[in-house]
């Protein structure tokens, strides 16, 4: 077969079509794998290198840090970045080195050329330290001090450091518990008292008993506060006791108080098994801790919590409404042109851009409903809004509206697949229509509703654009659920995984340092959503098989 | 027995109640959905509501019977102030004209007022020029207090430069014309005396370090002007002076250097529409409004030409008045103005929108004086019969018109008319630019590049999956691609912005190389497979697995082409493709550009298009395919002549739904483009889309402001656009489904 006839058979075009599928598949799985690798490698304790580096001016310096990325670049680009090289076809290897130590070096990252790197080694004893401020620290531990006087030096200092760090972390936990928990509660109570006082004022109620009661409660709170404050001061003096001295890459000796340290490890001395342990410990920290340093370090627990709360509320709102609408459309409404139009409209709403729902939510829920709620029920809080500002409730409502079509469509599909025999059997035994629906049809179609709900949840969990208008913030001071009555605070703003990705990736001052964390967050979100979708697909497939069995 | 009956009734009742309840619930849910549309419309509609004015009261002139020099209102429109030619300033209630208080300007003995000038309206300061060459500067102020929670406004008069008259003309000749501006640090006067001598006087406050007293540093410059001076105009920032002559000529002096004012331009004839009757600055002090007895008002402002020289240029005219215009009163903060004519009509006009909002008769008599309230919600007009008319104005959104949203508008300080979106700025005198054209353009541009990537991949993929793939593989492939539809777009956007954009910048040649060589490579691979591969290997793979076989092939071709990229970049473009584009072709490169958006958003809409197109193709009745094959057509001929033709409406609707999704997508464009609202076809430039614009600006727009409503309009446009597209697609699909069932 020569070329021309081969082309005329159309075989090459079929191959091209096949290539489109291959490319799509490569893109899909490549993307998932890329996010997984980038996100999961974040927690692996990287070895720390030490090397001699010839600077552009010929000076030789010592570099210590983690190698992050390497790439091949053309000579032209190397020249563009200020190196004196001849432009030819040579490719240069360029590394991104995380040197950390922002406090003593000024920058976290350096871009270095491989050709200028000598005596690369992974010396034992290099220490990686995660801190509450200034990012990671890399260097050599020299000594441990208590109140400024050295208690351990050289080899012995490592064990001493570990023991004292444990104590410092325990103290820090206590401080954190008091600051966030107890003092937060007192502040909340004081604010409630203020609102109560203001509302009495607005009502013109000048009952001295009530006033005295408020004064007394306030005094009690102030008293509790001063006790706590004293406790805190004591803890702070305790935690400030110890510090360490360490050597950074330019030979400088720095003193770091133990109160600053979150975690310390010596990656070059660890075997794979220990690293694995460290890996899971860091992973756990990521999902269970609060963010640090403007969200660029630490965990994402508040974002996970906020997403889950919002999605649960949304599910509670959307399920009954979606199911009722579907039951009405399928069981009660007269089938005809009108229902067909409604079905098309409902279907299309799933295609309306999510930002439009956000605009609607902001205008209708937040400003209109929220503003009126505030005027009616919270005059004492004015001029600061309670519900007249973006918050959890409005976010859930907006997303419920957004996902309503998903639930309606899925439920209707389930209803339409219930075999006629079941329905007619029930009716012929004398059951009313309601009883048939309630006892026979809905239970049979419940997996379909479940599918719809899961798909709705998956969609809501990943949606960001409308939430930016109706309730998410980059850093919420408190969770929407806490120990202060009424426990669930629907008016509060919350953090969200998707928005966290946008915010940390694009609004943070130190994008390079926070990027791995964004990948990890993205991976978490992808896993949640893919799993939810797979579950939904699985349930739907099982349901279809069940119906097939019922029909035969 | 009665127990069962009761139970029966109870059951029936429950059934009935549920039927009603569910119907009510169902209908209300569906209505709730409709509410979205109507709420958006409800917010948008006031933009297009026509404005109105209504008479509140009219009364004879309060205070002195002499001519009115100055007429104004305070912010709450409760108190008006009127200065008459004898120097008495009356404060009166606007609703019935009763006098609240009267002040007399401290005119020196024997002098009378010969000229008058007011500052930019927001300052409420004015100066009177006297017959002895002196001038007095005064200012009205309104002190608001709330005794017993009731608002009380007390008018007062202040003398910011002292009560003593300032000797502006050294010779003591009467000031025949005067213009005056005042700010915290300085005061500026332009005066013409009785012998037509023009001078510019600039007084700078100097605070001495030792004592607390303020001294005025006075500079005086004489200026040349040929004919009799009729009007002087100083702009509020004291950078420009306009001098209007008796014969209609206008001189434009630049005051950038206060020591030596410089003549920039002389227009021999300012107006071609008749004699100039009034001339005022539009708010902001950039544009001049020129009214004529021919009934037209023209807007002019200095425009920079090619050599960087400013020249006063005619921008637009308002010709809707039928009679000679007597007075114009610019709004305080917006770019609108009132014009009153000799037939007693008052018109409201807006310059940016280029439209006359309304014209209504206010009086039977010609109108002599006109004042607008600071919030542009009321007006005072004095007619020839000595009556003062007080009217309310309802005109919330004059800046919006069809032409200001969708047309080219010549904005202040721009060199030519343009489509600009710039909704806010730090300055108060800012002219908001609400052209939706750059945003719509950006939306369509982003969608176009996304479709360019997505349509071929998705449709070709759908064709193969539906027609040639083995069922076993299809069962895996379809859900894997479809699951990507659920992938949050924030993740795709994040990857596009932080990973893909720098990657493309670094490896542009490699990317282009892959796009170019991929189809060629695949065909070469296919040729090799069917011609050179030994038969027994080929037969080990049944037909319908090509896509799986190709996966390693595509990866290898991709990697080869990618690594080959820098080679041809070095050979043909000196190792710098981006530099070649920007230097040789003049296409500047922006890191977050259309290519990035195309790839990212294309990837996001592949599953949508793929899924719907595949459904349509797969549902083509098998007997059609089998019939065609049985008649001897090759699989490819069957596909192009039978399958695609039958399923084309379905493919079309898939493309439309994909387009709808691309148009409304927010997070990807927000993160993968620079979000600059430029109108540029360049593939290496970014854009700002309607949806991203909403996401960026909505949180900071003020409730019920024009900006807020315009953003709602953008949302409504998106809603309507996608709704129409999706409905069309849905209707087409339903018709197709019916067609299949009859085939």
Summary tags:
heterodimer, A: 552 residues, alpha+beta, MetI-like fold, 6-stranded antiparallel sheet, 5-stranded antiparallel sheet, B: 743 residues, 4-stranded antiparallel sheet, 31 strands
Describe what this molecule looks like in 3D.
The complex is a heterodimer of chains A (552) and B (743). With 552 residues, chain A is α+β, with helices and mostly antiparallel strands. Chain A has 3 domains: 42-140 and 265-288, no CATH class; 148-240; 301-551, MetI-like fold. Chain A has helices at 3-9, 11-41, 75-80, 102-105, 157-203, 208-239, 272-288, 301-332, 337-349, 354-377, 392-417, 420-428, 433-462, 465-470, 497-507, 511-551; strands at residues 49-54, 60-74, 91-98, 109-113, 117-121, 126-131, 137-146, 149-153, 242-247, 253-257, 261-265, 291-292, 297-298. In chain A, the strands form 3 sheets. In chain A, strands 6, 7, 8, 9, 10 and 11 form a 6-stranded antiparallel sheet that branches. In chain A, strands 4-3-2-1-5 form a 5-stranded antiparallel sheet. A two-stranded antiparallel ribbon of chain A has the order 12-13. Chain B has 743 residues and is α+β, with helices and mostly antiparallel strands. Among the domains of chain B are: 53-104 and 277-435, no CATH class; 437-742, MetI-like fold (Orthogonal Bundle), CATH 1.10.3720.10. Chain B is built from 15 helices and 31 strands. In chain B, strands 6, 7, 8, 9 and 10 form a 5-stranded antiparallel sheet that branches. A 4-stranded antiparallel sheet of chain B has the order 1-29-28-27, with no helix packed on it. Chain B has a 4-stranded antiparallel sheet with strand order 2-3-4-5, with no helix packed on it. Chains A and B meet through α1, α2, β2, α3 and α8 of A and α1, α3, α4, α5 and α6 of B.
